[in-house]
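User: Run a structure prediction on this.
Assistant: Running it now.
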Amino acid sequence: MDHRGQGRGTFHRTVFDNERVTDLRPRLPSPLREAADDRFARHGVRLLLKRDDLIHPELIGNKWRKLAPNLERAAGRTVLTFGGAYSNHLRATAAAGRLLGLPTVGVVRGDELAGRPLNPSLARCSADGMRLHFVDRSTYRRKTDPDVVARVLREAGAEGAYVVPEGGSNAAAVRGCRALGEELRGRADVVAVACGTGGTLAGLAAGLAPDQRALGVPVLKGGFLGDEIRTLQTAAFGGPMGAWRLDERFHFGGYARVTPELDAFAEDFGRRHGLPVERLYVAKLLYGLVALAEEGAFPRGTRLAAVVTGSPFPA
């Protein structure tokens, strides 16, 4: 595979280079831009922003990198996937379905949401043609159980669909995200990314050079993500790959939790750097990096790359 990412893959030759959908071709490699910021500079750290949010206007950042290999495998079938009521992954999958003419089904956590007015995120999914299927939280927790998946497929009227896991993280997605690390070889000492299901970090770490390391900032509570990343790397590559670690202090209470402090930080960072800061992932990452720099976690002379994986809703 070309080190610049998915743009040389079979998927792009057979689908994205079709005249009907040429506007779907990604911008790869995504730009890497230095951000002058005294909060890092006074500690001798150079901050670089890896603008994966600029890959594509609708399939943004790691969502593109994860979905592209899975959509290739779907081969025109209905795509069924899982997410919460504010899932960026559901929105990206729905957008891909609309742009490619693929039927999509979103299995949404929380049957109590059925029949209620849709929030803006789910409304966007529906407008893009995604059929929403709400399940109770007990069922959702067992979403990787083959019997549960088979029952959900039947109930959703989607038997025969290609199933993509929550967050899009599976072996194919992890291999797709490896290109992110390859694009950064020799250009940073530490590469940091916000983590939900861990697939992006698993692939990123595998793509970096041996003298580079990856840092993940989980946006959920729980302390379970390390095992998930190791499992994903084993499925994708047969075993552990790359040097990586997690700092689990910056979730701000859990997924989709945004405090006034975090909101103010994101607004300030956006003004400083002309960057609209997405709150659920990117803001937590950047906040964590500022805190780590203040703690002296990065040696002087470190080139620190922060992966901007998304943009604020609506995109």
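The domain at 78-160 is CATH 3.40.50.1100 (Rossmann fold).
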